[in-house]
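User: Hello! I'm new to structural biology and keep hearing that structure can be predicted from sequence alone. Could you demonstrate with BolA family transcriptional regulator? Please show me the input and the output so I can see what each looks like.

Assistant: Of course. The first part below is the input, the amino acid sequence of BolA family transcriptional regulator. The second part is the output, the predicted structure written as tokens.
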Amino acid sequence: MRERIESALQPQVFDLIDESHKHIGHEGARDGRGHYKVRIVSVAFTGKAPLARHRLVYEALGDMMQTDIHALSIEARTPDEA
């Protein structure tokens, strides 16, 4: 995840928190995919609405959303907003 997001969005700040341990027994956790929270500060988000920012993150992650990630909480801000 880190490599893909850093490559695509060139973040000034990137925090990745694995919250999978909080979801043990949850249906989505049974297949081995994790629950994550990301905080990203990037100029790539400048002038973009929240939904467009989330789409950029999903694009960067690509197939990981089907193979590695069950749930993703995104905080996407510009440097001026951070």
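User: So the tokens describe the shape?

Assistant: Right, they're a compact way of writing down the 3D structure. Reading them back into a model, for example: The first helix runs from residue 2 to 9.
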